[in-house]
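[step 3/7] inverse_fold.run input=structure_tokens len=150
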């Protein structure tokens, strides 16, 4: 009987406190700036060095490149870039090792899907995922006075 009274006392005491829940679907959560969310990929900056794929601990990144179509230009051009978010642990290693900052983390975290096949994201999807980019990386995406990004 004493346990029941104690439990009701705790319940009544907490009923007077303010609510700490969020109206999540209606009001988006503001995540801290260092939150590691879904990556944003800028194919124009990628030099196809494969460092992101090599450092990935889960081998969820695959990319291919081809020689530059202009014979005067050196280097490669990105052909495909895919991330399997079914096994990606959002460790941020791929963004840290990228020499050109072609891949940066965002604060997006919503990846709920009905099929696992939809968790394979390609170059176009990752390029269009450009909302809520970390403020430390957003300066690299802003266009310069000449019209091109850094």
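[step 3/7] decode complete -> sequence:
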């Amino acid at each position: 009987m004493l346990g029941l009274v104690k439990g009701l006392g705790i319940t009544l005491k907490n009923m007077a406190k303010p609510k700490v829940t969020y109206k999540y679907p209606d009001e988006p959560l503001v995540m801290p700036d260092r939150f590691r969310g879904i990556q944003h990929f800028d194919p124009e900056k990628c030099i196809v060095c494969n460092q992101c794929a090599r450092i990935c601990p889960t081998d969820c990144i695959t990319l291919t490149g081809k020689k530059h179509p202009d014979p005067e230009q050196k280097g490669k051009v990105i052909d495909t870039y895919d991330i399997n978010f079914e096994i990606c642990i959002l460790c941020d290693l791929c963004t840290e090792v990228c020499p050109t900052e072609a891949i940066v983390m965002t604060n997006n975290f919503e990846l709920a899907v009905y099929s696992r096949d939809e968790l394979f994201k390609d170059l176009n999807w990752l390029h269009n995922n450009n909302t809520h980019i970390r403020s430390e990386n957003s300066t690299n995406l802003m266009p310069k006075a000449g019209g091109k990004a850094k």
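[step 4/7] annotate
Strands lie at 39-41, 61-67, 76-84, 103-105, 120-121.
The helical segments are 2-15, 51-55, 93-97, 123-128, 135-138.
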